[in-house]
Amino acid sequence: MVPGVTGTSSSAPNLPPGGLLDPAKYFIILPDGIGHGKSSKPIDGLHARFPHYDYDDMVAAQHALLTQGLHVNHLRLVMGTSMGCMHSFVWGETYADFMDALMPLACLPVQIAGRNRAWRKMTMDAIRSDPPWQGGEYKSEPHMALRTAADLLIIAGSAPHQMQKSYPTRDAADKYVVDTVAKDLATLDANDLLYQVDASRDYDPSPQLEKITARMIWVNSADDFINPPELAVAEREAKRLKNGRFVLIPIGDQTHGHGTHTWAAVWQQYLAELLGAGPSK
Questions:
Q1: Which fold does the domain 9-111+204-275 belong to in CATH?
Q2: Which contacts qualify for 232-239: CB closer than 8 Å, 24 or more apart?
Q3: Per-residue pLDDT tens for 107-143?
């Protein structure tokens, strides 16, 4: 199970006993990819001299961890959210026989372009153009850049329906922004964030989707700012999957924009189907 672009293994959803992903039944692996969590990352010392990894590098490192470190030669399921969703497509193409099933949540299997690329570039430009960043050798965090990044992350990860319901007054919305940005500023590192966002620069599994042979159920939500359904990309690309299908969850009280992927109640029925017998329909 692979998390999103700024996520770590510690931010993974709770896996209760008796659930679909019961730790007593399955050996669950929650990796900290390169540049994330307790894995090597720029803040550890190399700063802007840290290798500019991409998603292919991250998946290759995870494969090496499994095969060489844990001596695992096959997986029942590869599942990921947001960045992890994109990693799932890379897994399916690069190591087609390594897993029985794939469950990508909240992504598109095409080059990151349009608005999705725009907010990422805004984030990277904000960091690189903030004078205190000093080419990555800052003495203290470039807070103006990180404040911009935190603002963009709020917009990218939110949904108007839930935001209006949760913060129905001006004061409530203002307090949410102040509290959330303050929380992010306390944990974000400029170089780490820059590398995390930049790692998606050459992601594009679309030319090789036919290589994916594992069973797949791919789920997005209709209120996802990052992967808006009106682009109709998912429906087009899903036709090329040999043994999978795409599910679009309509906007409702249980959807939370891009963050719907963390609300298991919304998609667990599809995970149950995927882990069960018989092919996807």
A1: Rossmann fold (3.40.50)
A2: 233/108, 233/110, 234/108, 237/108, 237/109, 237/110, 237/206, 237/209
A3: 999 999 999 999 999 999 999 999 999 999 999 999 9
